[in-house]
Amino acid sequence: MCGIVGAISKHQVAPLLVEALRRLEYRGYDSAGIATLNRDQLDRRRATGKLVNLSDMLVHNPLAGTTGIGHTRWATHGTATVENAHPHSAAHVSVVHNGIIENYKELRAELASLGHSCTTDTDTETVVHLAQHHLNQGMDPVAAVDATLARLEGAFALLFLFEGHADLLIAARKGSPMAIGLGEGEMFVGSDAIALGPLTSDIIYLEEGDRAVITLAGADIVDASGAAVTRPVTRVSIDHSQIDKQGHKHFMAKEIAEQPSVIAGTLAHYLDADHSPLDGIDFTQIDHLTMVACGTAFW
Ligand code: GLU
User: Fold this and answer.
1) pLDDT tens digits for 18-51?
2) Is the same domain home to 230 and 256?
3) Fewer Cβ within 10 Å of end Cβ, the chain: N or C?
4) For 264-287, what is the mean pLDDT?
5) How far is the CA of 122 from the centre of ligand 1 (A)?
6) Are residues 169 and 271 in the same domain?
7) Final residue belonging to a domain, choices 240, 258, 273
8) What is the position in ligand 1's atom list of the atom closest to the CA of 100?
9) Position 296 confidence tier, pLDDT thresholds 50, 70, 90
C-alpha cells in the first residue's frame, strides 16, 4: 500500500515531504516523487526504487517551494518507471493517488476525444487531465476537483496541488484513508497519521466520501452529499518503534518477530476488565466467527 503526504508551510517543504514519506516506507513501494509550487509554478522530482534515490536526486537537483505533495507508489497500472511515478501533472494541476480508478479506460477515451492525451500507463493520469479539463472550462480548483470526483469510480485517496494557489491543497477520501495534520502556522496531509508524527499530534481523520479544502487557515470539509461537516481533532501519539526497522533486515521480518507482542497487545485491549470494546456482546448468540486477513497475515 502506497503513501501520500502534503504540506503547506512557511518553510521549504521538499525535505519535510521526503522525511514524511520515509515514515511510510514500511507500507512498501516501488517509486517515489514530490511536486511543489516553485515560484508559483508546478515542479516535480521522481525516482524509481528506494526513497534514497529521490533524496539523492534532490541533493543534486533541489526543489524549492513551501507548498507540495509527495507519494510512494505501489504500482497497480503500469510498471515502476519514472514516467508512471506520482505526482502526475497537467498544465496547472498535480495529483498523488492511492488506490485504483476503475473506469480509467472510459475516462481516457473521453479525454482523448477532448484533446487530452495520456502519456503514462497509469489510471491516475486520467484524474489529473480531468481536473485540468474542468479548469480549462473556467472552474476554480474546488469546483474542478468536485467535478472530477463526480466522474471517478473505484477506491482512492487523492491529493491535489494547483499552480498559482500556494495556500491550497485539496484532499479526497473514498475507500482509502487520509488524515489532515494541524501544525502551528502549517498544515499537513498524510495517508497515515504516522507520516505526520514529528510534525504535529493534532490529526483530523477524513471519513468515507469526504473532500477537504486545506489552507493555512484550516480545513473545510464536506461529506459525500456535499454538506459541510466538522470532523473531530484527535490527539495522536506515535510510537517510534512503529516506523523503524528496530534492527530487523526489513519490515516483513520485523512484523513476523512482532507477532507475539501484537497479539498480546490486541488481547489486552479486548480483555480489559474495565473498558473492553466487547462489553455488551452476548457471545452465546454468536454461532460462527469469520477471520479476515490477507497476504502473510492470512497465515
Ligand atoms: N493506481 C495507481 C498507480 O498504479 C496508484 C497506485 C498506488 O496506490 O500506489 O499508479
Assistant:
1) 999 999 988 889 999 999 999 999 999 999 999 9
2) no
3) C
4) 81
5) 7
6) no
7) 240
8) 1
9) low
Domain that holds residue 141: 3-240
- Beta strands, E only, the chain: 3-8, 31-38, 41-48, 67-73, 88-89, 93-101, 154-162, 169-174, 179-182, 187-190, 202-205, 211-215, 218-222, 228-229, 233-235
Does the CB atom of residue 76 touch ligand 1 within 6 A? yes
In whole angstroms, give the CA distance from residue 172 to residue 183: 20
Helices vs. strands in the chain: H and E counts, helices first = 7, 15
Please name which of 54, 60, 58 lies closest in space to residue 30, comparing C-alpha atoms: 54
State whether 278 and 196 are in the same domain: no
Number of domains in the chain: 2
Beta bridge partners of 221: 212, 229
